[in-house]
Amino acid sequence: MSDPTRELTPRSNLETIRRQAKRWLKEIAAGEPEALARFRKLIPNHAGKAKLREVQHALARDYGLASWAALKQELAAREAAARGHAALVALFLEKSALRYGVRPGTQSWGEYEADRPARGALAQRLLERHPEIAADSIHTAVAAHDLGVVSALLSKDAALADRPSGFDGWTPLVRLAFTRLPNEALSRNGIAIAQLLLDHGADPNALFSDGTNHFTPLTGIIGGGESNQPSHPQAEALARLLVARGADPLNGQALYNSSLGADDVTWLDLLWSETEKRGEGARWREPVRELPAPPLDYLLGNAVPRQPRRAAWLLAHGARAQAVNAYSKQSLVKQAMLDGRSDLVRLLVDNGASPVELSGQEAFTAAIARGDEAEARRLLDGNPDFRVAPAPLLVAIRQNKPEIAALALHLGVSPDAEMRDGVRALHEAAGSDAIEIVALLVEAGAEIDPIERRYGSTPLGWARHQGASAAQIYLASRSHDIEALCEAGEIERLELLFAKELALANAPARSGEPPLFRLPDDDTSACDLVEFLLAAGADPAARNKQELTPAQAARKRGLLDAATLLEAALQPAGLLGSL
């Protein structure tokens, strides 16, 4: 990267920088020698026609930053600072923590941005640029893992240790448990901070709720869940400390979250042993909050068929081999057979489960799952309707075994076979990021954009929601789902589609709203999309069913920079004052 030739000023903002990039692109397109020379110096060996994103990258280098994203982050931090200390603090508290889909200050799940690394990265940048944030309150000090400030504040007022935040209602210990900053050195202070908080009266069983489930400090420290949220870097030591100081080790939400990850028994061992120390081991066979069945049986149902190590551990500790899956109500032996897992079938039968005889469609599925093509063909003879059921494909996805999917498709199983609510194998494969199976289904002719009735989404929408990056990239290059493409920030694909039909910039998407209302969760990506959509003719004065403009909707979601960009687009038309 060359030495910077430009400097940001107090008047620099995202809008002015974007205008600079656009002017430069026009000058390059017009063949102006100075503009061309400057671009070639910053982007050497460039061939072909310059694109806006390339010019933006060059402009970032001209300002001494590594990328356009880094330049926008720098501007976002400056703009947050310009809004004042209170805005900086609120943004830091919001972005520094895992929130499991719960909007701060509510018990509302499902309408908040996913727990992605970009959130913690933004919070860390704010802290580095404005270290005074840490001293604002006990909550910012804890989120910053600033042991010195936490200690000083508690020495003056011990009651701070358990005082809920006005921002989101969390106690300091809950905040410590759910904070994830990309700074391992700071995270090492977590144990000492937790000890201080507990010594001054913090409740180890404090919680926040999504309206149904309880998220305690132990839940946060362990992490995991449907989006594979990371554990706290000091997770095991913190978990032992919390339990020693009164946290309930039989934590239903933590058990659920950790059951969705790898075939690992670390947390099972720790939570079991700590429960046993209390003489409460029997509780693992009784109903607990957050789980639809007693923990041992429920977790065994989650372990079969993907987690043989966890299954063996659970059986050894008293799980019932004859239990049924809490969701499908299907016997676990039958589930293992349908998935072709002879190892788990033996394990369950050896532990008291009754053998099961499969017939019909189920026998066909099991034959495919264990790779017995001859038996599958025998069962298929006279039963062509077996090909319209998605069961063999779902087995392949559940275990991420492309060879099972390949055999099923080879035998004629429809790549568009549906489950209930119109969910297809491509939805499930995309959400699981089973990219090889996604490719097999598409190559076999699967419809790219079927809309299921459960969430009203396409496979691309499922991939985006689950953070399934490989599946998202693959499907985005083929999808016509404008809503999902916008939410995923897939501008290159949108450019191709809009080039064929410019009216798409204002056409209602699946939700009934035009694209400007379907921005990505990340403010930086949202700004990129806003700029593209406005250039394509999207109307910033449009209103949705709630009578909000795109700017108002973006601001309500916390996309402050995107909102500013949309508001600026309204100003030339004299429309901003009417909002």
Describe how the helices and strands are arranged.
Layout (H helix, E strand, L loop, with lengths): L13 H16 L3 H10 L9 H11 L5 H15 L2 H11 L21 H13 L8 H6 L3 H10 L15 H7 L5 H4 L2 H10 L8 E2 L4 E2 L1 H6 L12 H10 L7 H8 L6 H12 L17 H9 L4 H9 L15 H7 L3 H9 L9 H10 L3 H8 L10 H9 L2 H9 L14 H7 L3 H9 L15 H7 L3 H8 L5 H6 L3 H10 L22 H13 L14 H7 L3 H11 L9
Antiparallel strand pairs: 1-2
Helix pairs in contact: 1-2, 1-3, 3-4, 5-6, 8-11, 11-13, 14-16, 16-17, 17-19, 18-19, 20-21, 20-22, 22-23, 23-25, 24-25, 24-26, 26-27, 30-32, 31-32
Give your account of this protein's structure.
The structure is a single chain. This protein is mostly helical. The protein folds into five domains: 14-77, no CATH class; 95-103 and 114-260, Alpha Horseshoe (Serine Threonine Protein Phosphatase 5, Tetratricopeptide repeat); 264-270 and 280-357, Ankyrin repeat-containing domain (Serine Threonine Protein Phosphatase 5, Tetratricopeptide repeat); 360-479, Alpha Horseshoe (Serine Threonine Protein Phosphatase 5, Tetratricopeptide repeat); 483-567, Ankyrin repeat-containing domain (Serine Threonine Protein Phosphatase 5, Tetratricopeptide repeat, Alpha Horseshoe), CATH 1.25.40. The chain has helices at residues 14-29, 33-42, 52-62, 68-82, 85-95, 117-129, 138-143, 147-156, 172-178, 184-187, 190-199, 217-222, 235-244, 252-259, 266-277, 295-303, 308-316, 332-338, 342-350, 360-369, 373-380, 391-399, 402-410, 425-431, 435-443, 459-465, 469-476, 482-487, 491-500, 523-535, 550-556, 560-570; strands at 208-209, 214-215. A two-stranded antiparallel ribbon has the order 1-2. A hairpin with a 4-residue loop joins strand 1 and strand 2. Helix 3 crosses helix 4, helix 22 runs antiparallel to helix 23 (402-410) and helix 31 runs antiparallel to helix 32.
